[in-house]
Structures are given as C-alpha cells and as structure tokens.
Specification:
The complex is a heterodimer. By secondary structure, chain A is α/β, with parallel strands linked by helices. Chain A is about 35% helix and about 20% strand. Chain B is elongated and about 110 Å long. In chain B, about 10% of the residues are buried. Chain B is built from 7 helices and no strands. Classes of the chains: A alpha/beta, B mainly alpha. The interface between A and B is medium-sized, with 20 and 14 residues.
C-alpha cells in the first residue's frame, strides 16, 4: 500500500498518542486537521470534522464552522467542502449518533472524509458504524482519535497511527496491537510531533513522517 | 435538539434537494396536499395553453386562405386534378401556420418538384412501353399480326 493509497482511500485510521497541551506530546488533532485539509479536500467530496473539544485548528482550516449536525448539511448545501462541527451540545454521544445518522442519509456516491476527535467520549455504536460499516459501500473514510487505542471500539478495523514520543510504559500498547516490533525504533526516532503509520507487524511495515506544518498546530 | 433532528432533512440541505424551511411537516412529493387555489391556477394555465395550440394548429385547417399555388396552377403543371386539390389545401394550411403568402406561384422548389415528378412519369411510361414491346416479341402477337397469321399471309 503506497502512501498515496492509504491517505485517500477508504481505509480507516486510529490516531493515537499521549495527549498534552503546551508540551512535547500531543498533535493528534493537528495531524487530523492537516490530513483533512490536504488529502481530504483533494480526494473527497465533503470533509466533516467532529470537533467536540472546540479546538482552534479544525475551525481555522474549515470552510464553515457549525454547532449542530443539521448545520453541516446547510453548510455543504451552501458550498462548503470542509465543515467543522464544534457542538454546543455537551452530550457528545448524542452528537455522534446524529452525525452517524446524517452521514448515513447522504448519497452513497458522495465521498466523505470524517474525523472523530475524542473517540472515547463518543457513542460506541456510532464509532463502530463509521469504522465497520461505512467505507467502500458509502464512500466514507474515517479518522478516529484517541489517546489510548483500547479506549475505543473498532480498533481491529483501523490502521494504527502513533504520534509523538514513545515511553517505556507504553510498550504494552504496542504489544496488545501486535506492533511491538516498531516500539524500539520509534523510541529512538520519534521526536515531538513525529508520526508513524503502523501498517503491519513487520519491521518494514512502518511509514515514518516528520511533523505536519506548524500552521496546523 | 435531539427530538427535532431529522437526518434526511439535513442530508437534503447538503444535496440541494428542495427543502421548505418554513414548513415543519413537509411532504414535497405529495401534490394532493396542494390547496384548491393552486389547482385552479394550474387548470387555467392548461386551458390557456390548449387554446393557444388550437388557435395555431387546428383552426387554420378550416379557415386558411389561399396562400400558395392554386389547384389550377398545379394541374397546369401536370398534376392530376385530385392530387392538385389535395396539395393545394395542404400548401394553404402550411403557409397559414408559418404565416407566409407565396401567391399563385410554385416557386423554384415547386418547379423543381414538378419537373422531377414529370421526368419520373416519362421514364416510367417509357419503361412500360418497352416492356409491352418485349412481351410481344417474346410470343404474344399484336392484333394486326394475329390477323395476318389467321389469314394465312394472304394479305401480302
């Protein structure tokens, strides 16, 4: 699988790594925003970023920022391609359920790039629909963000992406996901905001990337 | 918010489908829900449209005046009387619909058509004569020849 393929095809990704503000850790939201704003826009009809934390980066790079799911539809109808949902409703599980229903109602031939930030806070069934059911059938690619891979369902349907430094106390995460082969190499290579796509268990099944442009921080 | 969310409505916004923002309960496909005034307007429009079409295409069938070559002119050009009358009527109708008056004149196109039809008739007649002659040579005697034969050649 080439870089171009998995950046824009309908495979799903779980972006994980330690969360941190104003530290050397973190970067999941920035990475997802960059991915949505570049490859998402280039290859998909619509880009939807579920920004339940109301982060700045997804709002700054979107064509429209809305506060409810119906607003996504209106924004797309008005010509927006990249729409960020920064909900005022703090029931994030309900928000994700409505988002699932909305994406289900869109035409199958409309390609969708969906980012689900703060995965553990969202409805599990909605997540499972996005990573198990949605895909080639209704032209949807999903990026699911979570500090811990084990904290979200559907892990087996996603390609693991790790961002940021790797600590010894995180080895168990790599082992549980059958990616321990990469742990030592990543401990040496991963400076802040570096990220790797762990395509498989073998040593060669890893693509290592430098940080995304600072404008997405 | 949860109770009011309609995913189909939201998707319709995204795709540009017809969504009435002011109507809470909407069934845009069901025309039966249109009120009587709307139906009257629709019926009136249909009547007006039919009337305009009738005036343009049906009425001239009865009222079109002489606008092109007359039947007599066509007959003079070799067209049988029956066909000339029919053709005269057809030409008058067509010219009435397009609102053109050519007068009792075939025009270049008409002359060419007449000429071609006469040429074809001449060729056809010649072909028929030739075939009749061939038939006689092949064994069927003309009346004169039959009389000579029956008379035993005494006419010579």
């Amino acid at each position: 699988m080439s870089e171009a393929d998995y950046m824009t095809d309908q495979s799903h990704f779980l972006i994980t790594g330690v969360t941190g503000a104003r530290t050397d850790y973190g970067g999941k939201t920035s990475l997802a925003t960059w991915w949505a704003d570049t490859h998402g826009r280039a290859a998909f009809d619509v880009v939807i970023f579920a920004n339940v934390k109301n982060d700045d980066a997804p709002e700054q790079h979107a064509d429209a920022v809305v506060d409810d799911v119906e607003g996504i539809g209106r924004a797309i109808g008005d010509g927006a391609q990249f729409v960020t949902l920064s909900p005022t409703d703090h029931d994030w599980e309900a928000v994700s359920r409505r988002l699932k229903q909305f994406v289900q109602a869109l035409p199958d031939d409309m390609s969708k790039f969906v980012v689900l930030d703060e995965g553990p806070e969202l409805d599990e069934d909605a997540i499972l629909w996005f990573v198990r059911v949605a895909g080639n059938g209704n032209s949807t690619k999903t990026l699911l963000l979570s500090q811990e891979p084990g904290a979200v369902p559907g892990r087996g349907q996603c390609i693991l992406v790790w961002i940021g430094p790797v600590q010894e106390n995180q080895r168990h995460v790599f082992r549980a996901n059958k990616r321990e082969n990469h742990f030592d190499a990543m401990r040496e290579q991963h400076e802040p905001y570096h990220w790797s796509v762990l395509l498989g268990p073998e040593d060669t099944d890893r693509d290592h990337y430098r940080p995304v442009p600072e404008e997405y921080a | 918010m949860t109770d009011e969310f309609d995913p189909s409505r939201a998707a319709a916004f995204a795709t540009g489908a017809d969504v009435d923002d002011d109507v809470v309960e909407t069934d845009v496909v069901d025309d039966v829900q249109d009120d009587g005034d709307d139906q009257d307007d629709s019926s009136t429009e249909e009547v007006l449209t039919f009337g305009a079409l009738a005036a343009t295409y049906l009425v001239p069938l009865l009222t079109a005046e002489e606008r092109g070559p007359t039947a007599g002119t066509l007959e003079q050009r070799g067209i049988d009387h029956q066909y000339a009358v029919i053709l005269d009527g057809g030409i008058d109708y067509a010219l009435e619909v397009v609102d053109i008056d050519l007068g009792d004149n075939l025009g270049p196109l008409g002359k060419v058509a007449i000429g071609l039809s006469q040429t074809r008739e001449t060729v056809q007649n010649a072909t028929e004569s030739e075939e009749e002659g061939n038939n006689n040579v092949s064994g069927e005697l003309s009346q004169e020849a039959s009389e000579i034969v029956q008379g035993g050649g005494q006419g010579v």
